[in-house]
Amino acid sequence: MRREHGVMSVIRRRAMSVIGAAAWTLAASGAHATDGFVEINQICATLTGCFPGDNPGFPVMVDGSAGRHYRLSSDLTVPDGSTNGIVVAADGIEIDLGGFAVLGSVDCTGSPIVCTPSGGTGIGISAASASIRGVSVHDGSISGQGEAGIRLGDGTILRVLRVRSNGGVGVDVADGSVVLDVVVSSNGGGGIRADASRVADALVAANGGDGIHSDFGTLEGNQVVRNGGVGLAVRAAVVRSNTIEANTLDGVLDAGGSLILRNAVNGNLQDGIETGAGASLIGNVARGNGGFGIRLAAGSSFRENTVASAGAKTVANAGGLDLGANSCNGVATCP
Amino acid sequence: MSRRRSSVGRVSRILLGVVVGAAIVLQTGPVLASDGVREIDSACALGPGCFSGDAPGLPVTIDGSAGRSYRLTTDLTQAPFAPSVAAIIDITTSDVTIDLNGYSVASCLAALCQNVNTASAGILGSGPGIAIRDGRVTRFLNYGIRLPAGQALIQRVDLDAIPVFESILVGPGSILEDLGVGTTTTTSSPAQPFLAVAGPGSIVRHSGFGLGLAGGALRVEAGSLVLSNGIFVPLIADPLLPRRGIRAEADCRLETNRVKEISPSIGVDAEIGAMLVRNVVQGDVVVAGSGQVQGNAILLESGGSPSFALTLGPGTTYRENVVAATLATADPVGGSLFLNMGENACDESTASCP
Asked: What is the residue range of A56's domain?
């Protein structure tokens, strides 16, 4: 009898160790890649941690010890508006969202936009500190986060993303970043904040604050429409070939020194384009804005622009240079 | 002692085999790829359903309960003589990505397809933020891709059919990129709208639109950007139905597009506040007013009876354009209250531009 009891005890122990090992494999096997990418999924994120350096529960902490390349293999659903989704704690990390979504519980609707629940502090994808740089994120969506969709540091690359319905700003990246082919919409705060960066081919619409805010950046080929603040808030930036329409404040608000070239700036509720000192406006169309089509500061210049406004509110010129070939309300001279 | 060790070892091996086998079964089900993307194939789509929320048979319904990333692994073709369905794929939630993976979404085979059995639409989506890429949508009856909630991202998709409505319709704030959109019809009906429609504030770029329906090839709503596309609208059977290469509503920007139309269509028909920059148009161009037309090449040479190759409304400026009208009945530039800002060439003479 004693011998049988001993045998069963051994069997039981071995069975538990085998089952335990298999359970670990099942739960965390999403984190083992076949092509060099380390996988992140909801199961490992919540139950076991996805790789070394990541503990069970959100946020998924990427400190680089498991590698540089990560890919989602399921949606990630963050439990509440004050919890982060993915936090990056190392330079040079790539995150392929694989078409999946980082989802939260915040919903932003209406005009003016209202996000509920409000007051959250969670961010979909963020950096552990301001010194983290060179992170790239692509191919998926981030929505429903409490504070922001994405907040990353210098040298960030964002491509082919939808960032929607987050409680605060949609995208906030630091200097030297590139933001391409993104749809940033219906966020409670601004759409994109990207100083000294390039933002191109983006669609930024219906956000609660400014559409794009960029000092020293290059903004090209973007659609910036129906945002609750300024369409483009810039300083010493290159602003080229954008459509800026129906924003609640100015279409383009330049704090000075920007090159504003061949944009369509129409139907904004305040001025179409308002400049600070040292701006150059070339070849823009400004039509049907609620304030002046162009408000020009001293030391700025404008040429080849077409301005159409109700009444006499075409150009307010506080000492800027008219370099010619401008038209205002169908007349080849402007104030 | 040895008998005890061998029985323990045998049981352990059996247990290990059971657990590993279960792991294999759980992890490699037929519709879940190794990267977690939900796979859709014809067998599950026409059969038992592909994942949670998807009932047997078409449409493949994506409600988000199985995740938000999907990939085709075969063509999806409606079975011949099957009951009519609203769509091949029906997306009822937001933020879904569908990788067509080089495959087609199609209604039943042409030889066996009766209108009553044809899928009404290729892909329908009711939520915002849907992305579709890399494949083909064909032979649909009403719509190819219809995403009215907008904020969509459609890339590298070919659409061809003889639909009643649009081949592709996207709502506000969408991006259409690298599409090929065409039909094979040679007749038109007053009920047919445009081949492609993009909602306000959208971007349409690097795409080709051929033939067009009764309305025309491409319609973009207010404040949209149309960049580097090719549009072809050939002669139609019914000359009483003017079609448009591009119909742009207020405040749109059209840049570096190539438009070829055969009258009586209109090459580019732009409402108030348009910017036309560096386009090449074989056909006529109409800009309603308060716009800017710069650096374009416009040639009107085919039949019909337009008065001008370039018609400009009040307050519109034009500069640096090359405009030619080889029709005896048409002049290069006309309209009312527009401004010649210089450096235009009309019928090979800078002196003849009004």
From this structure: 30-198
CATH number at residue A115: 2.160.20
The reply to whether residue B251 touches residue A141, judged by beta carbons under 8 angstroms, is no
Residue type, position A201, single letter: D
Q: What is the pLDDT of residues A145-194, one digit of tens each?
A: 999 999 999 999 999 999 999 999 999 999 999 999 999 999 999 999 99
CB contact under 8 A, B151 and A181: no
Q: Is A2 touching B (CB cutoff 8 A)?
A: no
Query: Does the distance separating the beta carbons of A103 and B131 come in below 8 Å?
Result: no
| Pair A155, A216 in one domain | no
> Nearest-CA neighbor of A165 among A247, A219, A76, A102?
A102
A269 contacts chain B (CB < 8 A): no
State residue A33's pLDDT score: 57
In this complex, is the C-beta atom of A227 within 8 Å of any C-beta atom belonging to chain B? Answer: no
For B72, the domain range is 32-282
pLDDT of residue B264: 63
Shortest Cα distance, chain A CAs vs residue B292, angstroms: 7
Does some domain include residue A323?
yes
Interface contact B32, partner A, CB < 8 A:
no
- Cα(B120)–Cα(A176) distance, integer angstroms: 47
The predicted model gives B68-91 an average pLDDT of 88
Cβ of B19 within 8 Å of Cβ of A22? The answer is yes
Smallest Cα distance from A49 to chain B, Å = 17
Instruction: List Cα–Cα distances, B338 to A106, A302, A332, B276, B278, in angstroms.
Output: 50, 20, 10, 15, 19
Mean pLDDT computed over A60-74? 93
- pLDDT by residue (tens digit) across A186-238? 999 999 999 999 999 999 999 999 999 999 999 999 999 999 999 999 999 99
Sole residue written with tokens 């169908």: A330
Helices A2-28 and B2-27: angle between axes, nearest 10 degrees: 20
A86-115 tens-digit pLDDT: 999 999 999 999 999 999 999 999 988 999
Structure tokens at B85: 């369905």
DSSP tally for chain B: helices H, then strands E: 2, 35
CB B107 within 8 A of CB B118: yes
Residue of A nearest to B315 (CA): A330
Residue B347 belongs to some domain of the structure: no
Query: Does residue A118 share a domain with residue A80?
Result: yes
Predicted-complex ipTM score:
0.71
Distance, in Å, from the CA atom of A169 to the CA atom of A147, rounded to the nearest integer, reads 7
Place of tokens 């400190």: A63
Q: Are A188 and A46 within one domain?
A: yes
pLDDT digits (tens, 9 = 90+) for B252-282: 999 999 998 766 678 899 999 999 999 999 8
For residue B116, give the DSSP letter: G
- The answer to whether position B274 is within a domain reads yes
Question: B91 phi and psi, to 5 degrees?
Answer: -105, 120
